[in-house]
Every structure is written in C-alpha cells, then in structure tokens.
Amino acid sequence: MSRADNERRDVFDERAIHLGAGFKEQERPHVLETLAALGAHLKRWNPDEVDVEVSVQDRGGKEQRVTLRTTVPGLPPLVAVADDRDLTRALGEAKRELIRQIDHHKSAREPMNSRQLRSETIRHPKQLGESP
Hints:
The protein has 5 helices and 4 strands, in the order αβααβββαα. It is of the alpha+beta class. A 4-stranded mixed β-sheet has the order 1-2-3-4.
C-alpha cells in the first residue's frame, strides 16, 4: 500500500468512524485499528458522506453488546450487532457482520442480480427506441 493510500485510509477512518456510548476518546486508536478492514469496503463512497457509529452496551458484563450503525449514500441504514465478553472480539464480529451486509447490498445491485441489466448482453444489445 502506498503512502498516499495509507494516508487516505487514515483520513477516511478519522472522518467516518464516531465513538458512541460506552467508548472513551482514548480508545479511538484501538477501535480504528480493529475496524480498519471496513475502509476497503466503504472506500467507494466519499468519506464525508459515510457515518459509522460504534457503541457498546453493558460494558464489561456477561452480555456486553457492540453495535455498528452505518449510513452510506444509496443504501438503507445498516446495523451490525455482536455480543461477546471480549470487547475486541465483539468489535471484530460486528465488523464482519457489517461487511457481510455491505457485500450483500452491493451484489444485489450488480447486473447478475438485475433482470433488466442482465438481459442486455453483447449478443443481445438493447436497440434504440426499445423499452425495457
């Protein structure tokens, strides 16, 4: 990864990820490091238009719950939740669930899953004046 890519990812993380209830500002570096893989999945959107809020309920308890609430243009609000006694493990599980949701919405918009887009191929291009 080039230095410019690394700086862009850092700027993206700083702008997009917000600490919510249950987290202290001094925990930001650990949270950003744990959620770093989200950058690759969210990079298609402008960082100014992406919001990821990270919160934790019942911190330190048996039922500790991490929640990632995400808004990105063109998708419905996404919410990923994970329960684990270990905070880092819960963050990782929530991150993987959020990535799964993003990938699911992305694949639903690809031509393979869109009858209208799929019907238009190299062998059968849409003719001018033809309705979908």
